[in-house]
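Exercise 7. Given the components listed, write out the predicted structure of the assembled complex. Treat all entries as one system.
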Amino acid sequence: MSFEINGHSFSQQPQTGQCLRTFLRELGHFGVKKGCDAGDCGACTVLLDGEPVHSCIIPAFRADGHAVTTIEGLASEVGIHPMQQAFLDAQGFQCGFCTSGMIVTCASLNQAQRADLGASLKGNLCRCTGYRTIEDALDGKSNVEDAEPGAAFGRSLPAPAGPQVVTGKARYTFDVAMDGLLHIKMLRSPHPHARIISIDSSAARAMPGVHAVLTHADTPTTLFSTARHEIDAMDPEDTRILDDTVRFIGQKVAAVVADSEAIAEEACRRIDVVYDILPAVFDPAAAVASGAPVIHPDKTPGHRVSNAIRNIVAETHGEFGDVAAALASSAVTYEGTFTTQRVQHGHLETHGGIAWLDAGGILNIRSSTQTPFLTRRALAQLYDLPSDKVRVFCERVGGGFGGKQEMFVEDILALAALKTGRPVKWELTREEQFIATSTRHPMRVTVKAGADKHGKLTALQLDVLSNTGAYGNHAGPVLFHACGESLGVYNCANKKVDAVVAYTNTVPAGAFRGYGLPQTLFAVEAAIDDLAKQLGISPYDFRRHNVIKPGDPMLSPAGTHYDDVTIGSYGLDQCLDLVERAMEIETKHDLDDDWLIGDGIALTMIDTVPPQGHIAEVVIAKRDDGGYDLTVGTAEFGNGTATVHRQIAATTLGCSVEQIHLRQSDTRNGGHDTGAYGSAGTFVAGKATHDAAQKLVAAMQADSNARSATGTSGGTPRSVAFNVQGFRVAVNKGTGAIKVLKSVQAADAGAVANPMQLRGQIEGGVAQSLGATLYEEMVIDDRGRVVNPKFRDYHLPSFADLPRTDVYFADTYDAIGPLGAKSMSESPYNPVAAAMGNALFDATGIRFTQVPFKPDRIFPELQKKFGKA
Amino acid sequence: MKARAFNYVKASTVVEALKAFEDAQDDASYIAGGQSLVPTLALRLQAPQLLIDIAHIPVLRGVDLQGDWLRIGALTRHHEVLTDPLIRQHAPLYSEAAPHVAHPAIRNKGTLGGSISHADPASEFPAMTLALGAELEIASRDGVRRVPADDFFLDLFQTAIEPGELLVAIHVPVVRPGHRWAFHELARRRGDFALVGCGILAEFVDDVVKQVRIAFFSVGSTPLRARQAEEALIGKKLDQAVIAAAQAVVGDDLDPPEDEHTPPAMKRHLARVLLGRLLGEIARQGA
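Answer.
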């Protein structure tokens, strides 16, 4: 067959059954990305005879005799395509994984299609940006500034990888060709709970092209947690690389290593597993009741499982003052139970990596991870290797959102490379992302609250039941965090917490942007709102009256012995003022009286670093060309740290950012970095960069021959950051449809390192959270199976689904953070569901207590109250 | 997942395609746009050993006015349905539904014939085929037959097309003066499958409904005609009371499946809301 790709004609025969996407990638067009392989996300969009198509659902042979243009072919000899330049000028990307497909689609739009972007971009999903900067690119707006040498901090400088991202040249985890590469496919459990009696893999091993079949018999029996934390003791030891008991549908059973994915997949089908099926439990309330099937019967507090027989991984109980007495004597009280659903990160680059042994006997793992250093440590421990014999690194990571603060694939990749001596690749499918990685913890939260007649909070109580699924990765820390800052932000003499996180036979939950706070805030901020309404006090004033002020302790039961959190800067008052002022502006609309309109707000506080240490070590070294090499461990996955680290270094050293040459996220470079999680990229790793730069300046002043300096940060002391979200919504009485008329968020991120990128983090956080608030839900059936493991049925917000959010910054300067900056990656997500719930209550008088607020979900209550349409 | 390693043959005539299917002893699939087929192959919901490419068969292409009928070739792409002036003029419900079908990249490849023969009960085009009262031209080794849309959609993803048969064209009776039509769907949000959707084609004489076809989708295992609601309109002027009467009976016309999130009662309610809006719009078209 003959093809014309990017203007070059050639003959080649695709493999039978091959799609155009894999065909193009085999030919080296790595700008063509895989997000779903089902025609839902658009990351693989190419032009076929000038028309955009999803190359993942075009059989390769269909391109026979046609012209294909990929992102790499858009640029001409004269220079890059105007649409590529537009995305560069607007910085219309964060992680950049969707960007190739997005630009290809945008470049093909005619004027009419440009006038209706909601329809035209329906087939291209972006999980990071919230689409505003993409719209800016199409509108020809520029969002970037430049900076004088030494003045980079605080300027909207573009991401250094921008030119590569928009041309499809940025290399992500799987964007590399390697000779002799083998492929892994995983046989997964069809049962929610079973003991494996036997695995017969002889037929699979006998297949030509199969190099190894790995089962629990091949793996160490060491117990660990897939969660990655600086201190391993934060998570239970309840997981094996491959286990002889399976505890959820989708759990790893046997890995096949073969010449191709197709052979590996076929071999998986030929493995015969005999299971002894065990009783299973899917509901967390049922799981903690007596008589429930026990999911980890052999675990003890020694494994950091609180009460294995009751399926309780972790719990916390405590009371300050006397909540019952305070409620009894309060002028107004509120009690409600709120539930949150299971949602998925939906980063477009799936989990996976490539592993190989090099000539020096070093095990190299190129992985899509937020924690290369902690993953190396875990692998060295699991396989008893010296840490200098293991290297973990990432190229550009296509989104993470907490989902890659885990070791889901590297353990298998390492074993496969060690066993076969060959380079091996494992790339999860979108379905595997849904059924076998991690999700947000679904929670049931009962809140009780009271206030006196003057509007002073008298009591706050939380009763939380969290569902961690089959394994306890992040179970405890998420639970503690959920009950921490949500109560700590309010001054109240009487507070009580009873919180439990349960095992169930479902896909495990893990770390996800916000780390528990979105779930509890949904309840707490509803209670605050309700008390204010009962007292006739504005929701702004009620909060102003009761939130912590500089100097106040931030208390939540049962208390903590990590007492290193201080208010390094305080902008919560400004955030409330900014949102109140923005919400006072009227919204024009032409809605009829079927629509009810209301306003709602919610606030959030977040500690700028997770507790128990977050460590970064950074080296700056002078180069012969007058520039500097900056070596940092933290990973870039769209969060913008690559930009900010250069800004911090250049500002401190008095040079331009172009003179700072960044080397990132590779254990081979030395040093240590706990990881790109807990919003620590600027506050911790940036502080280490600042420290290194300051030391180098001092050293050069003392000795003009000084060449390099090392900076460190231990992630302590910690500060707090704040956000306030406001919504104005319209709800249709007859259909339950919700329109967002206004979305406002004010953030206190300290001194703003890069206003454009910070705005992007906030818009993206609100967008992702609106997905969870209004639309997204993983549905698990009564057998424990995820019934909607694809984007088509799960449906991330597309361009048309999201309002534009007005973003405001408080003007503060943090005493602890680098150059006055604080963290701001997770927190924008946190108050969104709560603010939306409050706006719906204001509009309808109905307190909706379950997210997502799908029209069909809220409709029955609307109909009960407002009658037939 | 990876598709089974299928063989591939390009057919240049309908007879060639039919013969290839027969020779493969039914272990084959026709591929037109492939936008539904390829994902199902990748998920191994289907695993034929042979794919017969019908995209190059000239007789399956083209849009022609043939007297009182518009013949739309089965290979007409969604994008063409959206933009074709003959379809806009003579079979307008297809044009109105087209923007709601998938998204541009899919519409560039997906075909009308593919969508109709796939017969997804949540899809727009099968229901509009019903509303328009179209006839489906089906070729087999025995020759060609035409099946009215009312007899075409049999069950979930099942149509009157027998294994090995091929949908050649869609024949639509053209709309005439006196015809009015409306299309709308309710979805959780743009791009989602509709919770309920509906297309209506009505013929008026002196503001009185002479004939009407109301076709719903996403409310049963096939696209469904709302026969009782139609009955309630025939011979009437479309005033508030008549519309209300049609709304009162439309729930009985539908057969929404049990669904955890959208119970049948709610789908029926939404269908009533939707019918009210559409009939109101049709009434206003006469003003």
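Discussion: The first strand of chain A starts at residue 2 and ends at 5. The first helix of chain A runs from residue 20 to 26.
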